[in-house]
Amino acid sequence: MNIPGILNNHAATVILVHGLWMTGLEMRLLEARLRRHGFSTEIFRYFSRNASLSANTTRLQRFCSRIKSDKLCFVCHSYGGILLCNCLKQKLAFTRKIRSSVFLGSPLQGATVARMLGDTIAGAFAMGKSRSALIRGCALDVRPWFPTGMITGTINIGLGMFFLPGKGESDGMVTVHDTSAPWISERIRVGTTHLGLLFSGQVAVLTANFLQAGSFSRHSP
Question: Which among 49, 102, 148, 169 could disulfide-bond with 176, CB atoms 3.0 to 4.6 Å apart, if both were Cys?
Answer without folding.
Answer: 169
